[in-house]
Design goal:
Blueprint (H helix, E strand, L loop, with lengths): L2 H4 L1 E5 L3 H13 L3 E5 L2 H10 L4 E5 L7 H10 L6 E5 L4 H9 L4 E4 L4 H18 L7 E3 L2 E4 L4 E4 L2 E4 L2 H12 L4 E3 H9 L4 H17 L7 E5 L3 E5 L1
Parallel strand pairs: 1-2, 1-3, 3-4, 4-5
Antiparallel strand pairs: 6-7, 7-8, 8-9, 10-12, 11-12
Helix pairs in contact: 3-4, 7-9
């Protein structure tokens, strides 16, 4: 796989020297990296750009990496992330995993091992995704799932990875019932209350994105799921 084209990572690290060295090393290993020094900047990026993976330092000036993870969870901004920290106590690592981290790596970092873990995670994520179509027409829109894009009359809207997955699943069930449990288990990996609320937020977002074409509807069938009509 050509990771330079297919994967974009966000690195949050306030140490200028280490941040520069690590971002350069990752790019040498064919990973495209956006490096930011503050959690506030990381949040801004994650709200407006799709990333397949993020790496968060924990101890930062201002908002901490843990605080950022809590905000992402509360706002249903979905991105797999790794914590990178000098804090190596078991209690700190458990806290990181409880906030949704896919891994917790302690400093000093073994860069070679980090890259191996990143690429294994990316491979796993891609294998779990349904087959991709180059372009899917949705009413007056064109959905480019591979690029996380929704196009309308020359305008392009960037989707997050999870928005793209949900829209693709709705397209696969065009004019048919998409059971709520199926969407939750395939995309969220859970049917708990938090995941249900998160999915409702994502459905609302997709309705808003597709609102320029009144023939497109995502109908909620109470207690059962959704029907995508266009």
């Amino acid at each position: 796989l050509n990771y330079r084209i297919m994967a974009k990572l966000l690195l949050l690290e306030d140490d200028q020297s280490f941040g520069y060295i690590l971002s350069e090393y990752l790019m040498m290993k064919d990973l495209e990296v956006d490096w930011v020094p503050t959690a506030e900047q990381a949040l801004e990026r994650l709200m407006h750009h799709p990333y397949e993976l993020a790496i968060f330092d924990i101890m930062l000036p201002g908002m901490s990496g843990l605080d950022l993870a809590k905000i992402l969870r509360d706002q249903a901004i979905e991105v797999p992330f790794i914590f990178l920290s000098a804090k190596s106590l078991k209690v700190d690592q458990l806290k990181g995993f409880q906030l949704g981290a896919v891994d917790y790596i302690t400093k000093p970092v073994d860069e070679e091992l980090l890259v191996a873990k990143i690429k294994a995670m990316l491979d796993l994520q891609r294998k779990q995704q349904p087959p991709e179509s180059a372009a899917i027409p949705i009413g007056k829109y064109l959905f480019l799932r591979k690029q996380y894009q929704l196009q309308y009359q020359g305008e392009t809207l960037k989707l997050t990875a999870r928005e793209s997955e949900l829209l693709a699943l709705l397209c696969a069930h065009h004019q048919q019932l998409l059971p709520r449990k199926k969407a939750l288990s395939e995309i969220w990996g859970s049917t708990d209350e938090f995941s249900r609320k998160s999915m409702d937020v994502f459905i609302s977002r997709l309705r808003k994105y597709l609102s320029k074409d009144p023939t497109i509807k995502i109908e909620n069938i109470h207690g059962k799921g959704f029907i995508f009509i266009f």
